[in-house]
Please model this.
Amino acid sequence: MSNSETRRRGAASSLTTYRDWRGLPPEARGATVALGNFDGVHLGHVKLLRAAHAARPGAKLAVLTFEPHPRELFRPDDPPFRLMLPAERADALAAEGVTLLYELPFDEAFSQMSAEDFVAKVLHEGVGAKHLSCGTDFAFGHRRGGDTALLAARAEQFGMGLTLVPPLTDGEGPLSSTRIRRALQDGYPERATAELGRPWAIRGVVAHGDKRGRTIGFPTANIALGRHLEPARGVYAVTVRLPDGSVYRGAANIGRRPTVNEGPESRLEVNLFDFDDDLYGQELTVALHAYIRPEVRFSGLDALKAQIARDAAEARRLLDLEIPPST
Model:
């Protein structure tokens, strides 16, 4: 079985994913390689990718990252925290011009690899990097024993260039995935949008629910959060991209639905405006634009129905302000 998989984004660009650094074909070697987790592919990551490309504009642009995220291995009992899952990350990287993605399995054995071996065996012998690019705080190898000073020394030894990219900062300090997670958990999706360069989105497959929304006039598509971060519970104005690329506006609820008492697991329920079709089994991308209200318990279904109508009207208003309807 080949260790590569190609995803295409339109006719002009493609990205090939490799899940092993060993035995790579010639076309997968000799790139400029940006290093990091790239969770979210935010504007700081984009700055890093552009610096990597500028250093060797004639070379292929690659990213070397890990799956699962190391934190998922070392702290498996933590709540889900991912801004992006692998397919979303690959698409976001492809949109930034990355054509090679080394998505290396991060398991117990790999976590034991020394920093020296990571540079020599993975970066030099394995992917044959011509140039490396990373943040100034990049740490790697067993117990994060390698830093940028070690990387610089070994890169020079092996004839690889190195660009160290300082973090993107603003009045709040360095931009980071952690900061974006906090904004989402605090109910500020617009802050996440500013730092990502696009609205934060949850991608998932529509599953069968209890169909209660249809009975009260607001049918919803139900999507499990899975390994995605759970943002602030409540109602959001959203846009929804379907597999065919079409985009609809809508209102979504994220939470445990206390009024109908559906159990302890939070989920995403989205009502698409001006849409009436079967979405079961389809993969949707739900982008959060604005937070409308927190999750609350209502006295009954009539009160819930009235509030949903108000939420839908408010979602339309907010989306019209951000994305004026085409005329």
